Amino acid sequence: MSETSNNSPTKAAEPMIEAQGLSKFYGSFAASRDVTFSINKGEVAAFLGPNGAGKSTTMKLLTGYLAPSEGAAKIAGFNMATERLKGAERLGYLPENGPLYADMSPRSLLTFFGELRQLSRRKLNERLDAVIHICNLETVIGKPIGKLSKGFRQRVGMAQALLHDPDVLILDEPTAGLDPNQIREVRKMIRTLGESKTILLSTHILQEVEAMCNRVVFINEGRLVFDGSPEQLGERHADLDERFHELTIAAN
C-alpha cells in the first residue's frame, strides 16, 4: 500500500507531469502497475526505487516512448498517447545511456537535432549558445563525441534535452557511471535548471534526493509506495537508508 501525503511541497498548483493509473504489461509480467502521481510546475522530484523497480519503464510511458497497457500520461496537459507532438514540444528527455553519434561533434549533433525540431536558424543559433554555456561544453564543442569522457557525453545528452527550451525535463539516471567530480557538476546543473523548469529525475541513489530534490515519488516492483517530501521520507541520510530498505522490503 502506498504512503502518500497531502502536504507535498508545491510552488504552483499546475500539474506539468501526470501519471494516471499507468500500467505496462508484458504478458503476465507487470513492469508498471496502476502508477498515479503528478508533478507540479516548479518542482524537482526524485523518482526513487531499487534497480528493476520499473522507473525506466514508467519514464518511457510518461514521455510517450512506450504506449501504456492501461492509464494515461500527460505532459503540460497533453495526453502523450493522442497529443504526443504537442507534449514533446514542452518536454526534454534524457534517457539512461541515450544514443549519441560518436563520429559527430557536439555542435553538429545539436544542430542536427535542432533542425529535426524545425527550429529557425536564428532560434537554433540562440539555443546552441545557451545550452553550450549551461552545460559547459565550450572546450569540447568541436571534438568527436566518441572521444569525450562519459561526463562530457552526459552533458551533450543534457544539452540535447534542453535545446528547444522545454518547460519539463525527465532525466533517467543522469549521474549513472560518473565520477564524484562529474556527479557534483551534474547536480549543480540540475539545481540551477530547477529554478525555472519542472524536473523528474530517476535514481536509486539517496544522495541525489538530498542534494537536488524537494519531492520524492518512490516505486517498488512497479507500484507506487511513497509520494511526499524528502523530510517525510527521512530526516537524515541514515533515515533515508532505513526508509529505502523498509519500502523495498515491505512489498516482498
Descriptive tags:
Rossmann fold, 4-stranded antiparallel sheet, 7-stranded mixed sheet, alpha/beta, 9 helices, 252 residues, 2 domains
Describe the structure.
The protein is α/β, with parallel strands linked by helices. The chain has 2 domains: 12-90 and 168-252, P-loop containing nucleotide triphosphate hydrolases (Rossmann fold, 3-Layer(aba) Sandwich), CATH 3.40.50.300; 97-165, no CATH class. It is built from 9 helices and 11 strands. A 7-stranded mixed β-sheet has the order 1-11-10-4-9-8-7, sandwiched between helices. It has a 4-stranded antiparallel β-sheet with strand order 3-2-5-6. The longest helix has 14 residues, at 121-134. Mean pLDDT is 88; it is low at 5-12.
Write the layout of secondary structure elements.
Layout lengths: L2 E2 L10 E12 L2 E12 L3 E5 L6 H9 L6 E6 L2 E2 L4 H6 L1 E4 L11 H11 L4 H14 L15 H13 L5 E5 L7 H14 L4 E6 L2 H7 L2 E6 L2 E6 L1 H4 L3 H14 L2
Parallel strand pairs: 1-11, 4-9, 4-10, 7-8, 8-9
Antiparallel strand pairs: 2-3, 2-5, 5-6, 10-11
**Secondary-structure element string:** EEEEHEEHEHHHEHEHEEHH
Major beta sheet, strand line-up: 1-11-10-4-9-8-7
Quickly give the CATH architecture of the largest domain: 3-Layer(aba) Sandwich
| CATH class type of the largest domain | Alpha Beta
From the alpha carbons, calculate the radius of gyration and give it in angstroms: 18 Å
End-to-end separation: 12 Å
The CATH H-level homologous superfamily of the largest domain:
P-loop containing nucleotide triphosphate hydrolases
Output mean pLDDT: 88
Category by helix and strand content: alpha/beta
Q: Which overall shape is indicated by the principal axes computed on the Cα atoms?
A: globular
List unreliable stretches of 5+ residues: 5-12
Number of strands: 11
Number of helices: 9
Number of domains: 2
Instruction: Give the percentage of residues in beta strands.
Output: 25-35%
> What is the CATH topology descriptor of the largest domain?
Rossmann fold
Q: Provide the helix percentage.
A: 25-40%
Q: What is the makeup of the main sheet?
A: 7 strands, mixed
